[in-house]
Structure formats: structure tokens, C-alpha cells
Amino acid sequence: MKKIEAIVRHFKVEDIKNALTDLGVHGMTITEVRGFGRQKGHTEMYRGTEYAVDFVPKVKIEVVCSDASLKPVIDTILRAAQTGQIGDGKIFVGDLADVIRIRTGETGEDAL
């Protein structure tokens, strides 16, 4: 099993959610986050004073999937999230040792 974490732009979340749902992904977790990478921050004016916004607001989408469905899930996120501009985000993939459904006690892929 794999855990996919995608850091994406706010306005792309609905597109990604719909694309993953169409693919058959049954669940995901979404968290509002702030950070920076190559996009760095930007400056804004507030009451005539310029200040730096170092951390850019983004959304982190977490999806757990089987090894077999990893590539289609990643490809779907890439297609739905991409604008071609700096700041589109990143996708991180990690191994997952186990999953346990609390209600039934099911483990592994049965718990997905």
C-alpha cells in the first residue's frame, strides 16, 4: 500500500477530488497548509505598508491506495492539478505498513 501526499493550489482541489472520484478513489483527507518552495513568497500592501508573505497557502491532499492503483492515481492528480506555472505543487509517495479500519478491525487493503 502507498500513501500519496499532494500539495496543490486551492482552486484545483475540486477538480482533483472529482477526477479521483471518477477513478474510483473512495476516500481522501484534505488539509489547508502553508509553505514555500520555488514559488517563494510574495509582497502585499496593507494600509500603505509593504510586507512579505513568506508562506503561501496551499492544500494537502492525502490518499491511500494499493500498489496496483498507484500510477493511475498519481497520473490523475497530475492532470487535474497542473497549470504549468511555478507553484503547482508537489506529490510525495511513501510506503504504508498497515491500515486498520477502527469500526470493523479490518486490516490491510480490506480496510481501504
Can you give the mean pLDDT?
Answer: 90
Unreliable spans are: none
Quick one: how many beta strands? 6
Briefly note the structural class of the backbone: alpha+beta
**Overall form:** elongated
**DSSP helix count?**
2
End-to-end C-alpha gap: 10 Å
- Over all CA atoms, what is the radius of gyration? 17 Å
Strand content: 35-45%
CATH class: Alpha Beta
If classified by CATH, what would the architecture be?
2-Layer Sandwich
- Count of structural domains: 1
Characterise the protein shown here:
This protein has 112 residues and is an alpha+beta fold. It has a single domain (2-111), classed as 2-Layer Sandwich (Alpha-Beta Plaits), CATH 3.30.70. It has two helices and six strands; from the N terminus they run E-H-E-E-E-E-H-E. A four-stranded antiparallel sheet has the order 2-5-1-6, covered by helices on one side. It has a two-stranded antiparallel ribbon with strand order 3-4. A hairpin with a 2-residue loop joins strand 3 and strand 4 (49-53). Helix 1 runs antiparallel to helix 2 (70-81). The longest helix has 12 residues, at 70-81. It is elongated and about 60 Å long. The N and C termini lie close together (10 Å).
Give a quick precis of the structure:
With 112 residues, this protein is α+β, with helices and mostly antiparallel strands. 21% of the residues lie in helices and 36% in strands.
Q: How are the SSEs ordered, and which strands pair?
A:
Layout: E1 2-8, H1 13-23, E2 29-35, E3 42-46, E4 49-53, E5 56-65, H2 70-81, E6 90-95
Helix pairs in contact: 1-2
